[in-house]
């Protein structure tokens, strides 16, 4: 792994054959400070800076979450759907409860 690269267990070749061995080996590497834990199941090789180890770049963090173009397209479509839903909220009849859409007319 190169410096600054974010990876998870599933990216390691032997994980599908011996997950417990890989998990233990990664844990040992974390305790020896060869790699750092970013979050649960995500790790990175720290880059060396003048004042000490550096965290991964923003681009690398985004890459670690969005694996391919399909993920990016799905994320954009989800955001568009939510934005459209917020632009025109459903009207709830007054006898069924409070409606944020109708709140402006009180």
Which terms summarize this structure?
single chain, 106 residues, alpha+beta, three-stranded antiparallel β-sheet, two-stranded antiparallel sheet, 38% helix, elongated
Report on the architecture of this protein.
- There is one protein chain.
- This protein has helices spanning 19-31, 58-65, 69-87, and strands at 6-8, 36-39, 42-44, 47-49, 52-54.
- The chain is α+β, with helices and mostly antiparallel strands.
- The chain has a three-stranded antiparallel beta sheet, with helices on one face. It has a two-stranded antiparallel ribbon with strand order 4-5.
- It is built from three helices and five strands.
- 5% of the residues are buried.
- It has one domain.
Which percent range fits the helix content? Answer: 25-40%
> What value does the Rg take, in angstroms?
22 Å
Number of helices: 3
What's the main sheet like? 3 strands, antiparallel
Task: List the helices and strands in order.
Answer: EHEEEEHH
Low-confidence stretches: none
Total beta strand runs? 5
Total count of domains: 1
Euclidean distance between termini CA atoms: 60 Å
Strand content: 15-25%
Structural class: alpha+beta
Strand order of the largest sheet: 1-3-2
Using the alpha-carbon principal axes, give the shape.
Answer: elongated
Mean pLDDT: 80
How would the blueprint of this fold be written?
Blueprint: E1 6-8, H1 19-31, E2 36-39, E3 42-44, E4 47-49, E5 52-54, H2 58-65, H3 69-87
Antiparallel strand pairs: 1-3, 2-3, 4-5
């Amino acid at each position: 792994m190169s410096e600054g690269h974010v990876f998870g267990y599933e990216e390691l070749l032997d994980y599908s054959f011996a997950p417990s061995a890989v998990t233990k080996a990664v844990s040992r590497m974390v305790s020896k400070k060869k790699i750092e834990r970013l979050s649960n199941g995500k790790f990175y090789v720290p880059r060396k800076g003048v004042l000490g180890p550096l965290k991964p770049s923003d681009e690398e963090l985004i890459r670690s979450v969005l694996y391919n173009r399909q993920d990016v397209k799905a994320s954009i479509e989800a955001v568009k759907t939510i934005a459209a839903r917020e632009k025109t909220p459903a009207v709830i009849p007054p006898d069924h409860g409070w409606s944020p859409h109708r709140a402006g007319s009180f």
